[in-house]
Each structure stands twice: as C-alpha cells, then as structure tokens.
Write a structure and sequence with these properties.
4 strands; coiled coil
C-alpha cells in the first residue's frame, strides 16, 4: 500500500492538537499547536547532523500541507 507523504491526525484526548504525520524517511509526527516533533526513526550521529539541516524544511513542508488541506475545506 502506498501512503501520501503527509497525513493529518486527530485524537479526542488532545482536542486542540493539530497532528501532521510525515510518512517518508525521516518519519515524524509534528503537533502544529506547539511545534513539538516526535521522530519515528533512530539516527546515528552522522544522520543527526544532516537531519538538523533538513528538519526546518520538513517542518515548513508539513505546515504548508496543513494550510493547503484547510484551505480546501474553506472553499
């Protein structure tokens, strides 16, 4: 089964949270309410340096995905 690059997540235990799941490497979940990121991968020290450089781009892409999805419901 193929998944989209990003998925929206919802949970009634966290009524104000806005979760975006990144399904490709490096997989992560971000809560856009507070920008908290949970990485679903384990990284070596070498990977961590590269990840730091890419993390900002990935978080911006997750936020843009959410904004796009919300705008589609507003139309």
């Amino acid at each position: 089964m193929e998944f989209p690059k990003f998925l929206l997540g919802d949970n009634t235990d966290y009524p104000t949270a806005i979760f975006v799941v990144h399904t490709e490497f490096p997989r992560f979940i971000i809560n856009l309410e507070n920008d908290e990121v949970e990485w679903l991968e384990e990284f070596s020290k070498e990977d961590e340096k590269e990840l730091e450089e890419e993390a900002e781009n990935l978080i911006e892409a997750a936020t843009a995905f959410y904004d796009r999805e919300v705008s589609r419901y507003e139309d």
